[in-house]
Amino acid sequence: MSLEDLYREVIIDHYRSPRNREPLKHADTRAEGVNPLCGDEVTVELELSEDGSIDAISVRGQGCSISQSSASMMSELVKGKSRDEIEEVVEKFRAMMDLDGDATDVIDPEKPGSVLGDIEALYGVRKFPVRIKCANLPWTTLAEALERTN
Amino acid sequence: MPSLDTAAIRSDFPVFERLIGGKQIHFLDSGASSQKPSQVLDAMTEFAAHHYANVHRGAYTLSLEATTEFERCRSSVARFIGATSPNEVVLTRGATTALNQIAFGWGGEHLRAGDKILLTTFEHHANLIPWQMVARRTGAQLDFVPFNEDYQFDIDVFEAKLDTDVKVVAVTGMSNVLGTLPPLRQIVEQSHSVGAIVVVDGAQLVPHLGVDVTDLGADFVAVSAHKMLGPTGIGFLWGRMDRLEEMEPFEGGGEMIADVTLESATWAQIPHRFEAGTPAIIESVGLTAAIEYLEALGMDAVAAHDAELTAYALGRLADVPDLTVYGPSDLSKRGGVISFTLGDAHPHDLATILDSEGVSVRAGHHCAKPLVRALGVPATARASFYVYNTTDDVDALLDGLSVAADIFSPSRVV
C-alpha cells in the first residue's frame, strides 16, 4: 500500500467537495466528535423516520483529509438506510479499520469498492496506524448521535 | 565553512543508523524532543550498571558515588547557564514541573486579588495553564501581550500593559511554534522597573541559544533536558537566590525536609526543599553528559548552525507555491523552528506524506492552542532543527512538500 493509494483521488475529492454538509433544519439528534490530540472536529446531525432509518444526514467539521473525507463518504453510505443496515455498515467499517483483524474478511482488495464503495479508499489508512483515529472519528460521532435516540 | 562538523555529530547519534521504509531519517522535530547521542546513553548505562543507589541517604560507597554524580549534574547546569551558585539550580522532572513550581510556589504565595500576571498569547500550555490555575486561586488577573504583524513580541502593547499591578511577567524565551525570540533583556529591565518578577520558559531557548542567567537578570528560568540531547524525566529550574527564598515548596515528601513531627515540618536548605522524593538520578547523569556534549560543540556554534539552517530553509520555502510560514521574517528575531501550511492540505496529511519521504515533522497545535487559533488555522506543520541537521534534511523536506503539493494539487478537484 503506497501513499498514493492512501491519498487516492477519491479521498481528496471528498475532502475538497464534502457531501451532505448542509445543516439540517429539523434534526432529531446530533453529536459532536473531537479528537483532542489533533483537533479534528466532526458534527453529525440526523433526521430519522419512525422506524429509525436515516432520512437525512448532515456531517461537517474541520480537520485532515482522512477525517473529513471519512465523514463525507460515511454520510453517503448511511443515508436512507435502516437501523439494521447501518449497524451492518458500521460493523464492516470497524472491521476494515481494525488492525487486530484481517480486513480482507470484509472487503475484497481485488475489487476495490465492491463492498463498501468509495470509503474502501480508507483501507490504506491501516498502513498509517496513527491516522486510524482520524478515519474513525465520524463513525464514533454517528454512533453517539444514534445512541442519543435510544 | 560550516559552524559544526555535522558528519561527526551524526555519527554520535545511533538513531541515524536506522532506515525507515528504506529511507534515511530526516529528523525535523527536535523542538518536541531531541535525539540522544551515544555519550548520553552510555553515561547513563554505565552509571546505572556500576554506580547506582539512592542519593543523599546512604553512608555507603554506591550512595556516595550516586550523590556525587547527581550533584555534579547540578553544578554542570549551573556552569552551563551561568548561575552564580549550584544552589540556585533545582533539578525537576522537566520545564513543566519547574513552571508549576514557580507558579504555585512563588505565585501562589505572593499573588493577591487585583494583581496581574502578564503572559504572551504565544506561550506553550506549560507556561499558560499553571498561571490560569494560580490566577483562579489567588484572584489575580491574566493579561497577554500579542505578537505583531511580523509575529514578533509586541513591545508597544507590552509597555502599555506594564504597570505596578503587574507582579509576574512570564514569557517564552523562544516560541515553540513561531520561533519568535522576545527581547528578554528589555522585558526584564522594564518589568523590574515596575516591581514585577520575570519568569522565562527556556525550554526552546536554552537548548538552542544557551543563556547566561546572571547576565540576563531574570528571576526564574525553566528548562527540560530532553530537548537538549538529554533524557526525558529531568529538567531544571533556575531561580535567583532571593526569589528561591521567597518560594514555598510545591511538593512535600522525602528529601525536602529539615525536621518533621506528626503535625508539621521544616524545610531543608535550598535547593533541596524543592526536590521532594527520589529524583531522576540516572537521568541526571544523562543531563550532565548532554551538557558536556553541547559545551564541547560550543553554544555559539550551535546557535550559528541553527541560524544557518533556518535561513536556508526559509529561503527555499519562500519558493514553494501556496506555502505560508508563520513566524518572524527578521532572522535576528527568530530561532530554528518553522511553522507552515501548504495550500488546503491539512498539516496532519502533510506530516503523513512527509513521513513517507523519511521526513519527521510535527503537525498540530504544538501545545499552544490559543496561538494556533490566533493564526486562523486549525493546525500547522512544524520543522525544527538541531545540531545533527543538515541542508540535506531541508532538501528532503522540500522534496516531500512537492510530493504533497502533487497529491493535493488543485487539478485533482473533481
State the fourth-level CATH superfamily of the largest domain in chain B: Type I PLP-dependent aspartate aminotransferase-like (Major domain)
> Which shape of chain A, going by the Cα principal axes?
globular
N- to C-terminal distance of chain A: 40 Å
How many strands, which pairing sense, and closed or not: the largest β-sheet of chain B? 7 strands, mixed
Low-confidence stretches of chain B: none
Describe the sheet with the most strands of chain A: 3 strands, antiparallel
Number of domains of chain A: 1
Number of helices of chain B: 15
> What is the average of the pLDDT values of chain B?
96
CATH class of the largest domain in chain B equals: Alpha Beta
Count of alpha/pi helices of chain A: 5
**Residue-averaged pLDDT of chain A:** 89
* CA distance, first residue to last residue of chain B: 50 Å
Which oligomeric state applies?
heterodimer
Number of strands of chain A: 3
The chain-level structural class of chain A is: alpha+beta
- Secondary structure: helix percent of chain B: 40-55%
Shape of chain B: globular
List the helices and strands and how they pair.
The complex is a heterodimer of chains A (150) and B (414).
Chain A: H1 3-6, H2 9-16, E1 29-34, E2 41-48, E3 54-62, H3 65-78, H4 83-97, H5 132-147
Antiparallel strand pairs in A: 1-2, 2-3
Helix pairs in contact in A: 2-3, 3-5
Chain B: H1 6-11, E1 19-20, E2 23-24, E3 26-27, H2 38-50, H3 61-81, E4 89-92, H4 95-110, E5 116-120, H5 129-138, E6 141-145, H6 155-161, E7 166-172, H7 184-193, E8 197-201, H8 205-209, H9 213-216, E9 220-224, E10 235-239, H10 241-246, E11 257-260, E12 265-267, H11 281-297, H12 299-317, E13 323-326, E14 337-342, H13 347-356, E15 359-360, E16 362-364, H14 369-374, E17 380-384, H15 391-407
Parallel strand pairs in B: 3-15, 5-6, 5-7, 7-8, 8-9
Antiparallel strand pairs in B: 1-2, 4-10, 9-10, 11-12, 13-14, 14-17, 16-17
Helix pairs in contact in B: 2-11, 3-11, 4-5, 12-15, 13-15
